[in-house]
Amino acid sequence: MTLPIFILWTLLLGVAATFLAGLLGMGGGVLIIPGLVAIFHAQGVSYAHLMHLALGTSLATVFFTSIIAMRAHQKHIKIQWHIVGTMVPGLILGSIGGAWLASMLKTNLLMIIFGIFLAYVGLKFLLSKNGQDKARPLRKPLLLFYGMVIGVLSALMGLGGGVFIVPILKRYIVQMREVVAISAVCLISVSFVASIAYMVLGWNEPNLPAHSLGYVYWPAVIPLALMAIIFTPLGVKLVHRLPQNTIKRIFGIFICLISISMFYTVITGQ
Q1: Are the C-beta atoms of residues 255 and 123 closer than 8 Å to each other?
Q2: Inter-CA distances, 21 with 27, 42, 111, 137, 142, Å
Q3: Using an 8 Å Cβ cutoff, are 174 and 133 in contact?
Q4: Burial of 265 (0-12, 13-18, 19+ CB in 10 A)
Q5: Which domain holds residue 195?
Q6: Helix runs in 75-139, H state only
Q7: Number of structural domains in the chain
Q8: 87, 167, 243 from 56: Cα distances, Å
Q9: CA 70, CA 235: separation in Å to the nearest integer?
Q10: Which of 166, 202, 240, 261 has CB atoms 3.0–4.6 Å from 215's, for a disulfide?
Q11: For 83-134, what is each residue's pLDDT tens digit?
């Protein structure tokens, strides 16, 4: 793959992923990872490093998209920083533990379990009716626990924490746009710590592409981050204009698609 073609495909991937990051508070990694795997494969990246490079590059991009999303959300809504501050330590600790577990566990069974869980969550969002949402009390120990669990699951599955943060917090916060904003902010610290870890883990690995820093490939991060500057605020702007139930339906559809992709991966081994 020539450099202009590589840049073109990366920019197109950035348009879709970063817009979605702003709209759903997921950081965009769910689209970026499979997109980068396909692009890196076409570029001739060593199969042994393909997934690690996609994950590390995605995490570095999520760091930028989440910062941009946070700044955009602050123009429309007051972010509940007390929730963010309580969840982040758990998210960081959980992601470190999850990365350690990921090196020892087989993931097929986990993917089936989480695929079922995500299908349930997605259908619940799709089938919920107006007026069903009720705010519940949310205590700090529970938030810290949720953060640790989400951190572990995210590291094990290679998914952005927003996939889990949004449905869990939606049980306690009525307004979907507030949940999306909190999710985007939480991803800043997690993606930063995880991307640094991928840089360190890949520091001495041979046969990585030129201009890689460990498992982070900066020629991909830069165009993706540039698209985030334009399209993440557009996604945030849209989420603050759409009706509450429309946001829930979009999130539900997307979660169901992720669930289907998990089952496809397990069945086909691809």
Answers
A1: no
A2: 4, 25, 22, 27, 26
A3: yes
A4: middle
A5: 3-268
A6: 81-102, 108-127
A7: 1
A8: 22, 25, 35
A9: 12
A10: 202
A11: 888 888 988 888 777 767 765 665 566 667 767 877 877 787 777 665 555 6
